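Newbie here. two chains, one complex. Structure please?
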Amino acid sequence: MTDEMVLSVDNVSKRYGEGSTEVYALTDATIGIRSGEMVGVVGPSGSGKTTFLLIAGLLDTPTSGSVSFRGQTISRAGTHPNALRDFRRQHVGFVFQKPNLIPFLTAAQNVQIALAVNGTVGKAAKDRSITLLQHFGVDHRANNFPNQLSGGEQQRVAIARALANTPRLLLADEPTASLDSERGRQVMGMFRELADREGVAVCVVTHDPRTHEHFDRIVEIQDGRVSPDTAGSARRPLERTGELPSK
Amino acid sequence: MNIAWIDIRYHFVRFMMATVGVGLLFSATIGMIGLYRGVVFEALMIIREMGGDIWVVQGDRAGPFAEESEIPGTLARRLDGVAGIKWSKKFIQFNQQFEIGGRHVRIAVTGLDYPDDNGSWVPLVEGRYLYSGHYEAIADESLGFSLGSRIRIRRDDYTIVGLTARQVDMAGDGIMFVTVGDARTMKADSPSEAVLLRRASNLGDPPSQDATNKISAVIAKVEDGADPEQVRQHIASWGDVAVYSRVAEEEILLYSRMWRLLLQILAFVVMTLLVTVIVVGLSVYTMTLEKAKEIALLKLIGARNPFIIWMIVQQALFIGAVSFGIGLLLAHLVFPHFPRTVLIEWKDVGIQFLVALVLCAASSWFGIRKALSIRAQDVLS
């Protein structure tokens, strides 16, 4: 496992509206995240964090600049978001403030659906889903529907789903916001473990200062611009042991 | 893992409510097609059951199933002399309302050419065929007469000696078989005052036997080995009659009398299917709207559009298939109790099932359009 650059957001700007209604949500932002690195993106509400997450997660395309993945340019101005879906499916995992589990699927099926959209079905998908749920300590809830799980259990299932296709990049948007401090710490610990052991590049958008201790770096976004003094500073050394179940 | 079916199972009550509603619509379309088939079956029944290869009717007329046809009763004897004719039967049928036992009954009176024809081809459910040239009748159960009962029609009493089931004409009136002579008497019977007035108007003219000697048609069987077309052309050359093959007579009945009914039924079927498309479309659209967040999530985790489209189409197909099953079940439970025959043919059911699936798949377009407009980032909203 190398410290290769997994995600590289280069000089990205995002403009909404035209003429008098024109607003720049992100201006000339450059952020890189390496394999095994856990980066926190902080900033006040409306600073452009979510826009950054959308563009980094290939859910939206920049007005200018480009997004590269492991050195290959994937998204730039004019790229249709639908064209990025295949890439997203194989390489990017998402975790949100709300777990966003599908209510009519069991915990195991919520993981399996991520595998199914990537072509893994049947016993292989079942085994993989149970392995992941086991890893996050919710395998005893495999056949329960989301409304039968606690908030922390739901979030752990959501993380298992995000990792179903062994992504190289995990993007999280306020993943601890709806959890108590203990459960929030557990979730952040899981992310840390993913970065350290599996070499997943983890990017967490957060307001919560209690989470900062887990990050290698903190990137601050203010008024759509990345603060220059935070963009590249490493806070802790990387350690990896590689124990996350592989596909 | 079939996500479409899992969703349906999770929202089973709502799914069943939708399918029962659509099922009722499908049972209506099955019933309408079945009603048409039933009317055709009933209309052709008498032609097919009576046998014969050719129908001889009044000249320049299309025959008794299309318009009034009156020919002399003696025509049957003329036909018996034609080379190639094996047998001939007089045919008379008319619908009339009689007051019997204090109630008004519409009857399709049909004459049997007794004694050559005692009705042995009529499918009886009870009783016997005609043993006498007068005052015996075989009646359909729908007329409400019991076996052995005596009924007064005009001035004569008839004994019901046999009962049939579902022997009705194309108007749905129960058929009562009597001898041709009795049928002519029933048809020609009129009040005393009318007879007196007719006699007065005919003063000086010789009394006419025509009124009671008329029949509607003569049915003839061609001998084995004889060419039916040659025989038909020979009889047609007489000029005073028109001659049709049995197939031609069936076609006259279907296309002259029943094509409007067919058009009307087809129009109702089309309308009902359009309503079905709208109901299924709305159901699928509502189900898609309720899953907007889940669809956004599927897109977020990289599901391709065909994956999402197939999920929606499958749900529409599930609704269509289950609804059609419910409709078919209802049709089999309810329609046998309808006053007219509703004939459900499996070929029609198969075609309707395919049409139902195609329409349901097409109706999922509303939901698909909505699903495709949902963006992955809507998960965050």
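Moderator note: Chain A is about 30% helix and 25% strand. The two ends of chain A are 17 Å apart (CA to CA). Thread marked as resolved.
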